[in-house]
Predict the 3D structure of the following.
Amino acid sequence: MTSMRLRAGLLGLLALLLLGTARAEPLIWMIEDEDSRLYLAGSLHLLPESAYPLHPAYERVYDDVSRLVLEADLTQLESPTNQTLLLASAQADTDATLRERIGDAMYDDVRRHAKRLGLPLFSLDTLKPWFVGLMLELAAYQQAGFRPEHGLDQHFSRRAIADQKPIRGLETPDEHMRLLTGLGDGEIGSTSTLAATLSQFETYDDLPQSIYQAWRSGDLDAMGQLVDTMADEHPSAFDRLLADRNLRWMNDLVGLLAGTDNVLVIVGAAHLPGQTGLLQLLESEGLTLVRVTR
């Protein structure tokens, strides 16, 4: 569960969404050939319980497929071994306190927001700054009623298990864990990510709800602003978390169309828009994507 929360926090952490006109359309696209259909859906990894029931299109698409593909198989990601590895990667490599590592001013902001969010300050003291930012971000989401168990990928993973539909990942558990445990390197490992989180708390009164409304209304333009902001302000994070992974996934996605099974692929919504997004990459392969609206 920690890995699911982490990935959700990374998307929220870098979000600066300006909501456009709401369109009651789900973030689902279909690619069809002579003998199969591939559906690509954009997910939020944390959602409020009020997100359900989903738009009817989600249920119709799920009923039409025999296989489910996620970023990674959630049941394997949440193994005790993987969770231990992830938490170990978040620990600071020094005995210096968090205040000593990030400075008095930033520490005072962390303390203020931790108190507001009901997060014990002592629980943050031994963590790397990037993980402190994620902990604050996730606490904000949870305070607003968002939970990983309500995320779109978790929801359909449970459904597929119950219905005995095969589940597989675009990444192996090892690949996915290496992505997460490498987040302390370079730019993402510096205090800049924590500073971005603290800045967002000052700018947005209700960031989780804003992101949720963009997703629920199917506002791809708002998601595109998220991606553009991430690319401009955190280029290394953008490449590692979105652009590079999208390129790696392309052969797999195109290969799914070579089969005869109808397949539902669910990825984080930030993977969809933009020049390096999956929608554009798939179109560049000569494929026709049709948005599913009902």
In short: Residues 63 and 177 are 31 Å apart (CA to CA). The chain has one domain: 2-291. Confidence is low (pLDDT under 50) at residues 4-9, 13-23.
